[in-house]
Amino acid sequence: MGGHTPPDEGVPATVAQILLLHSAYGLRPAVRAAAERLRAAGHQVEVPDLYDGKVFDSIEEGTEHQEEIGPEELLRRAVGAAAPLLTPGTRLVYAGFSLGGALAQNLALADEQALGLLLLHGTSDLREDASTEIPVQLHVAEPDPFESEDWLNAWYLRMRAAGGDVEVHRYRGAGHLFTDPELPDYDEEAAERTWASALAFLDDLDV
């Protein structure tokens, strides 16, 4: 960005420690590939399996399993995955796909040292007393069957009111989970635009 000394060739502007949480489908190959893409850019990425190895090919099956586990247990598992990373001086970027985005948001807003929040296809409600100063980037289909226009507008206003530095990227005509090449939702152009913006967002964080 303007005013910054250009990084050496091949060295990322920022090396972020990222906790990347999967969607209701489970830890699919696309999530692992996303982690590898982020690692190739120089970042450190942890990708926990909140489903203990179970992976699903349909949103119906994934959602059913998600509901069997329950929101409190899923959040407990996400907290447990983050805990080993929260060493003194470490500031995490919380990121996630759909369900994982909702979990990442909850973790980030509870962590006063959080560095950033990268949301892919999903958000979560905010408490009225929520407070944060972290940068937030959201990527979402337009329209999205799970993130309605009214919901997104309300979410944006609440996140801004909480103090978040929010940017929203919308992708008209893409499916809900448009970054997964193995799902009908996939949109190659939207996915590539998402990753270009996400990597720029990570590079711009103040580690």
Q: How large is the count of helical segments?
A: 6
> How much helical structure, as a percent, in the residues?
25-40%
Q: What is the CATH C level class, in words?
A: Alpha Beta
Structural class: alpha/beta
Strand order of the largest sheet: 2-1-3-4-5-6
- Our measurement of the CA-to-CA distance between the termini, rounded to an integer number of angstroms, reads 15 Å
Mean pLDDT: 93
Alpha carbon gyration radius: 16 Å
Number of domains: 1
CATH superfamily: Alpha/Beta hydrolase fold, catalytic domain
- What's the main sheet like? 6 strands, parallel
Strand content: 15-25%
Shape: globular
How many β strands by DSSP? 6
Please describe the topology of this protein.
Elements: E1 17-21, H1 29-40, E2 44-46, H2 59-69, H3 71-82, E3 92-97, H4 99-110, E4 116-120, E5 135-142, H5 149-162, E6 165-172, H6 188-203
Task: Tell me about this structure.
This protein has 207 residues and is an alpha/beta fold. It has a single domain (17-203), classed as Rossmann fold. It contains six helices and six strands; from the N terminus they run βαβααβαββαβα. A six-stranded parallel β-sheet has the order 2-1-3-4-5-6, sandwiched between helices. Strand 3, helix 4 and strand 4 (116-120) form a beta-alpha-beta unit. Helix 3 packs across helix 4 (99-110). The radius of gyration is 16 Å and the shape is globular.
